[in-house]
Design a protein that fits this description.
By secondary structure, the chain is of the alpha+beta class. The protein is built from 10 helices and 6 strands. A 4-stranded antiparallel β-sheet has the order 1-3-4-2, with helices on one face. The protein has a two-stranded antiparallel ribbon with strand order 5-6. Helix 1 packs antiparallel against helix 2 and helix 2 crosses helix 3.
Length: 305
């Protein structure tokens, strides 16, 4: 059966893209994808990509049948022919068609394709989407505006400037750890707490279970429920209030601290605390009360023995 090979007249608009590897083929696909839709329709791009996938990089042959292209793109054969004409006119495809004697002159049994580049394109890489990077601050009047650059060849290495800035801002917000005050400062605080507790212990009217009292006292101080001065003043007021009571009615210091009794209002019937100034020659009621309390505790201690 005699066959006639027909080459399109559009080959003068383009030059063949030399494909010797899959990378060359992929570069051509990326370039045609990057073409504006006003130049080539999205449907034509789909047909072009499907044809490129049939290109054999070893033999250099690309001759899928029209039904195969139609099946691969989900289009009708008539629509595929229209897209081929569009690609030819744009210079992205050179089609060699062969006719069979039994078929109509308008239907080609097989095709041989050459992937080409329009002569108006000086470089294929100029349209490669891998080399496209968005502006740092896109113009709101032109959303999605792109600036082409040849510095980036792999889409996985495309770096957006705004992402870098966000990362830098987040890094700047990381607070440095607080300075280490050292063991010297810790020892000084413990020494002050110990001295303040001894002042509290001397002021409290009942001295039992000192270890429990120390733990309760430090808990109040560390929780900042009261200051050492407030605790000592409250203990002195409590000692005055309990000066006439038997020792067994006075709360243990740990119990007094755990119940928050240091925050109680002083008994209005008792003499105010040691901070009260008395006129010259006036009797020291607080000192007298403290002396009576000590005598009572001494007598009970002797009776207990």
């Amino acid at each position: 059966m005699q066959q006639h090979i027909h080459a399109t007249a559009t080959s003068h608009k383009s030059r063949t893209h030399n494909i010797t590897s899959f990378k060359d083929r992929d570069d051509w696909i990326k370039a045609i994808v990057a073409v504006d839709c006003e130049e080539i329709s999205p449907t034509a791009k789909i047909v072009a990509i499907r044809i490129a996938l049939h290109h054999n990089v070893e033999s250099g042959q690309c001759n899928p049948s029209l039904p195969a292209v139609a099946l691969g793109t989900g289009m009708s054969e008539r629509n595929v022919r229209r897209m081929l004409n569009e690609l030819e006119e744009a210079g992205w495809l050179i089609v060699h068609k062969s006719r069979g004697g039994r078929c109509s002159l308008d239907i080609y049994n097989s095709h041989t394709f050459e992937l080409s580049v329009p002569l108006t394109r000086t470089r294929l890489s100029a349209l490669n989407p891998d080399t496209v990077v968005r502006d740092k601050e896109p113009n709101p009047d032109k959303p999605g505006r792109l600036t082409r650059t040849n510095r980036v060849a792999n889409p996985d290495t495309v770096v957006r400037q705004e992402n870098c800035e966000i990362t830098a801002k987040r890094t700047a917000k990381i607070e440095s750890p607080p300075p280490d005050l050292g063991d010297q400062d810790s020892g000084r605080r413990q020494s002050d707490d110990a001295a303040d507790f001894e002042r509290f212990w001397n002021a409290y009217p009942k001295k039992v279970d000192k270890a429990d009292a120390r733990r309760a006292y430090l808990s109040v101080i560390r929780k900042k429920l009261a200051t050492p001065e407030q605790m000592i003043a409250a203990a002195q007021h409590y000692a005055v209030e309990q000066s006439g009571n038997a020792r067994r009615y006075i709360k243990n210091p740990a119990t007094w601290l755990n119940k928050g009794s240091y925050a109680n209002d002083p008994d209005p019937g008792s003499t105010s605390g040691p901070t009260q100034h008395r006129p010259s020659g006036a009797p020291d009621h607080i000192g007298i009360g403290m002396e009576i309390a000590r005598q009572i505790m001494a007598e009970e201690a002797q009776n207990g023995q």
